[in-house]
Design a protein that fits this description.
There is one protein chain. The chain is mainly alpha-helical. The protein has two domains: about 80 residues, DNA polymerase, domain 1 (Orthogonal Bundle); about 180 residues, hpI Integrase, Chain A (Orthogonal Bundle), CATH 1.10.443.10. It has 13 helices and three strands, in the order H-H-H-H-H-H-H-E-E-E-H-H-H-H-H-H. A three-stranded antiparallel β-sheet has the order 1-2-3, with no helix packed on it. Helix 1 runs antiparallel to helix 2 and helix 10 crosses helix 13.
């Protein structure tokens, strides 16, 4: 019965709120953690404020980052707010709880020179190399999330006018400019590589694997990691490395925060502001290195 309430909440997030499956699965995992913690005390719908506090303290002792704890508490608060709205409970045990302070960790990014090295690695005389080149150029040109990149469809492209349409988190669509180089590499891939990879199969997806099927996030992770390893960047690479580099480099070149927010698909500008910390850190390092009185 308890799981029925969680399922009801997850269905609400999907149908009413339109959240992505990745987000919904994160909520599910967090609520299941709470349920397991409360198992010997009470049911999840009979939990009191002290029970939730004890759970948060338990997470803190398990070496979880403050960001992960804050996300977990956010999921729990949303769940109990939903139970109140549905009339399932009368008292919200999380009403007076505030999120722990999040010490934002700056996302890693590549320098301009490192991006240049990375983008020159794919062998464009090979079908997979040409595809990889198009993928990496597209990601750096648009700041797409990995999940968005591998989900791109042919009808998302408008190469003539130089932009792509992307359905991001919660199904929110945004239009992102596509640079000249990325545009040309996609054209090359569509003409010389994709037909060979398809092997007479049909697919509406833009980027496909060597079997002519959809790519996975893990598959893309392996691709970029292999290239990064070849230029000694293995320790700096993350799945979103080109997305972080895209945002950082735009701001360093003078782009305004609001425009970068729109291109990244962030619902809150505070999420985008983390990249201003990066540019400030970089400026400080340059100052310390080159100013005669630093």
């Amino acid at each position: 019965m308890i799981m029925d309430y969680i399922k009801l909440f997850l269905d609400y997030l999907s149908i009413e709120k339109g959240l992505s499956q990745n987000t919904i699965q994160s909520y599910k995992r967090d609520l299941e953690k709470l349920q397991i913690f409360l198992r010997k005390k009470c049911s999840i719908i009979k939990a009191k404020e002290k029970d939730i506090v004890e759970f948060i303290q338990y997470l803190g002792k398990s070496n979880l980052s403050s960001r992960s704890i804050a996300r977990c508490l956010s999921a729990i608060k949303s769940f109990y707010k939903f139970l109140i709205l549905e009339g399932i409970i009368k008292i919200n045990p999380t009403l007076n709880l505030s999120s722990p302070k999040i010490w934002l960790t700056l996302p890693r990014y590549l320098t301009f020179e490192e991006v240049e090295k990375l983008l020159t690695l794919p062998d464009e005389s090979d079908e997979l190399g040409l595809r990889d080149k198009a993928m990496l150029e597209t990601m750096y040109a648009t700041g797409l999330r990995v999940s968005e990149l591998i989900s791109l469809k042919l009808n998302n492209l408008n190469l003539e006018n130089g932009y792509i349409k992307c359905a991001g988190k919660g199904g929110k669509e945004r239009i992102i400019p596509l640079g000249k180089i990325a545009n040309q590499k996609i054209r090359d891939y569509l003409k010389f590589s994709r037909p060979k990879l398809l092997k007479r199969k049909k697919s509406e997806l833009l980027f496909i694997n060597y079997r002519g099927e959809s790519l996975t996030r893990q598959g893309f992770w392996k691709i970029i990691k292999n290239y990064a390893y070849r230029i000694g960047l293995k320790s700096k690479i993350t799945p979103h490395i080109l997305r972080h580099s895209f945002a950082t480099h735009l701001l360093e070149k003078g782009a305004d925060l609001r425009s970068v927010q729109l291109m990244l698909g962030h619902s809150q500008i505070t999420t985008t502001q983390i990249y201003t910390h990066i540019t400030r850190e970089r400026l400080k390092k340059l100052y310390d290195k080159y100013h005669p009185r630093a």
